[in-house]
């Protein structure tokens, strides 16, 4: 498995396990607590992939640590921000201006966490161990979530929350227990992902733990895999290989059209599809798909980013 150093950073490891597929591991020791430097590197990675690796067709997102996917927000850093705000002099500061400053900080944070939704290829979250608070935001922005099915209690973080997913995983929308409403995507994505407002409200109001089987039942994950990190990552990579064998134009267009339809009416979505496919139906991938199927061979598709000519992977 090739280590792609030009894409990796201090706490994010990027590999190429198979042609056209990336494996991204979150690796901030010990529990992937997300600080400012971490989320900035995360967003930058996804935004830079199309320019640095023009023929990526699928990506698997995982954790370097078998017992935890992410402990969520770095509470030490968050506490410092809260303390600085609480200690500000009311005679020299203005609450409205502080609010505007927070908005300027929150927006790029949101954009970084939602970066998987913007790329042209599918992102598969291979979830194992605990997924706490902001970790739920991270996986919610991915296209597909696999999870392992069993869970063993750990004391890594007392506040830790117990989407392919491994059987050793449990979830919690934990922000309410630190005095926050989740603001990085969970409360936006999960009602649309699950279609179950009652369940999402209950979990969000209470920070209760819920199991892999419940996550699968309500549609947060599409598959529960028996085992742990190795098993769920392997399953997610097999799915990525299947996706990567298809026309990258067709896959990227399908992702775009599904995403558009979640926020628009049927009539608007059909019109958008009409406009989109009036251009995309001109692709050479259609003929290659038919010819490869007839010849019973894998498809030989051009890189998705045409200006590069040939893939750099």
Automatic annotation (TrEMBL):
Belongs to the enoyl-CoA hydratase/isomerase family. GO terms for cellular component: mitochondrion. GO terms for molecular function: delta(3,5)-delta(2,4)-dienoyl-CoA isomerase activity. One of its GO terms (biological process) is fatty acid beta-oxidation. Keywords: Fatty acid metabolism, Isomerase, Lipid metabolism. It comes from the Eukaryota. The keyword rRNA-binding does not apply. This is Uncharacterized protein. Gene3D superfamilies: 2-enoyl-CoA Hydratase, Chain A, domain 1, Lyase 2-enoyl-coa Hydratase, Chain A, domain 2. Pathway: Lipid metabolism; fatty acid beta-oxidation. It comes from Collybiopsis confluens. It holds the Pfam family ECH_1.
